[in-house]
Specification:
The structure is a single chain. The chain is about 30% helix and about 20% strand. The protein contains 13 helices and 19 strands. A 10-stranded antiparallel β-sheet has the order 4-5-6-7-3-2-1-8-12-13. It is of the alpha+beta class. Strand 12 (about 345-355) and strand 13 form a beta hairpin. It starts with about 35 loop residues before the first strand and ends with a helix.
């Protein structure tokens, strides 16, 4: 069937933005549909990469449970064919004015559509250095080749392998050098350089820069535009994500069948042979996109996408026709966004680092993030729980490793409405539990009891007192303490209510 249409999005109403708002020149070379992760300098990028390396190559490891590690940084470097830290050691900020990671998705685990954009003081020197790294990568990877392709009328260097384990396009344009996994992103970079609209020209980005000005000197500034989110909900992305899952399933089934065929002395590298032997069903590999599961040098790959972990970037996938099941599934997705969502809110994130007073060599990292402008009506009951903006802040302990505050509305799921209140929480420095330590109710409860954390509210909303069967604890003692089910300690005084498994934290 023909590809179904995408939702019809309504532009967000933005407040007026001063024409004097400062927008960095880097943003003038970024396509509007790309996410934008700007470092401001190459040293900031090296710092960020080293920070992520402490957590196994993925900055997300700093905040999620240990044990899940997709080595995002290593995957990006491998696909781009350039180990960017080697450039920093040789040149660093001496030839690189600014740097950003951009792309149309962050699906790093299976193959992302992203690239590294450099603003340089000497583009020729930088490209010569990077090209030398690319030739070394080609020699180190069997089957790799390096050559030139024409994109948007410009010669572009391409380093690649047949299974897309390496897929790196590189070109310079004026003072900018761009390295990307995607031919589509390379084309869009060159088109923006030729005069097509850029991220810097978008009203939502200019508003974001007024809200989070460049003068704040963010070590990392991230901006996810409405156009970026629109693309993620497009038929190309949603249908190809479904096809990727199907492809992964076929590769896994072929791997299992191949292992069984090898044990039985049957040809284990040919799908038709294994079908004849009954190790694969007759309908195996009948897919709407015509892709086939092939064995290449002992590794199972998808004929259209490459090997698992290095699929063809979704931005480069051509979607011409779809099956009736795919069309029906996407039509439901599009209808939901058309009826319920209608707008995408930009996401803004800034990260700054400071020397910790009195502790040489120790840094404090401050992260701020915004959904702004915030269309509250889209978020249903979640948004209804949030109160209006407030100038009041709870002064939490300075030794909290992480802290959270929310201004909540008086609406609550237990029925009785109360006044608006502040909900806050904090956790002391600790190693997060491993996945094995949180499997099952008992282990999860023990992990919670061992967590040095607290939760509080002011003024007391009275939610705990509305719980039946005395689950909210009995009357407080003279010091304001009471004990709840499961070992939770509650303290009430002066309009505050605090909860923790560790009474010393409340003290």
């Amino acid at each position: 069937q023909p590809v179904p249409p995408a939702p019809q999005w309504i532009p967000a109403a933005l407040p007026p933005v001063s024409p004097d708002v400062v927008v960095e020149s880097m943003a003038t070379r970024v396509p509007p549909e790309c996410f934008y992760l700007r470092f401001g300098s190459f040293n900031n990028y090296v710092w960020f990469q080293e920070l992520s390396t402490r957590f196994g190559g993925d900055i997300g490891q700093a905040v999620i449970v240990r044990g899940f590690n997709y080595e995002a940084s290593a995957r990006i470097e491998r696909m781009l064919g350039t180990k960017l830290t080697s450039i920093a050691k040789m040149f660093g900020d001496k030839i690189i004015d600014d740097m950003a990671l951009i792309g149309s998705d962050l699906y790093v685990k299976e193959g992302a559509s992203l690239g590294a954009l450099f603003s340089t003081k000497n583009a020729a020197l930088l490209t010569t250095s990077m090209q030398a790294d690319r030739y070394l990568a080609a020699k180190a990877n069997p089957g790799a080749s390096i050559g030139t392709v024409n994109i948007a009328g410009k010669d572009v260097s391409l380093l690649s392998t047949p299974d897309n384990r390496l897929r790196s396009f590189m070109a310079s344009d004026g003072d900018y050098v761009f390295v990307t996994t995607s031919s589509t992103l390379m084309r869009r970079f060159l088109e923006v350089g030729s005069g097509e609209p850029s991220l810097a020209s978008m009203p939502s980005f200019r508003w974001a820069r007024a809200w989070m000005p460049e003068a704040n000197n963010y070590s990392v500034f991230a901006y996810f535009s409405p156009e970026f989110f629109h693309q993620l909900v497009s038929p190309q992305y949603q249908i190809e994500l479904r096809r990727r899952l199907e492809s992964i399933a076929h590769l896994e089934v072929a791997e299992v069948a191949s292992t069984a065929a090898l044990a039985e002395g049957i040809a284990h590298d040919d799908v038709s042979e294994m079908q004849s032997a009954g190790l694969l069903p007759a309908w195996f590999d009948q897919r709407s996109d015509g892709a086939r599961t092939l064995n290449s040098n002992g590794r199972w790959v998808d004929s259209l996408r490459g090997g698992r972990g290095s699929f063809l970037p979704i931005a480069d996938v051509e979607l011409e026709t779809v099956s009736d099941v795919e069309a029906g599934g996407y039509t439901k997705i599009a209808s939901f966004y058309q009826d319920q969502w209608r707008q995408m809110d930009p996401l803004l994130v800034g990260l700054r680092r400071f020397e910790l007073d009195g502790h040489p060599g120790v840094e404090r990292v401050a992260i701020e993030g915004y959904l702004a402008p915030f269309g509250k009506q889209k978020y249903g009951w979640i948004a209804n729980l949030l109160g209006s903006a407030t100038n009041v802040e709870i002064n939490q302990p300075q030794d909290d490793a992480a802290a959270l505050q929310l201004h909540m509305s008086g609406v609550n799921p237990l029925g009785r409405a109360t006044q608006d209140y502040h909900l806050f929480a904090g956790v002391k420095d600790m190693l997060p539990p491993t996945p094995e330590e949180t499997k099952g109710l008992i282990k999860t409860l023990r992990a919670l009891q061992a967590t040095p954390a607290y939760v509080g509210a002011w003024p007391m909303p009275g939610l705990l007192d509305q719980l039946p069967l005395g689950l909210g604890g009995g009357p407080p003692d003279l010091a304001g303490y009471s004990r709840m089910l499961g070992g939770l300690v509650r303290w009430q005084s002066g309009g505050y209510s605090l909860l923790s498994f560790d009474r010393t934290i409340i003290d």
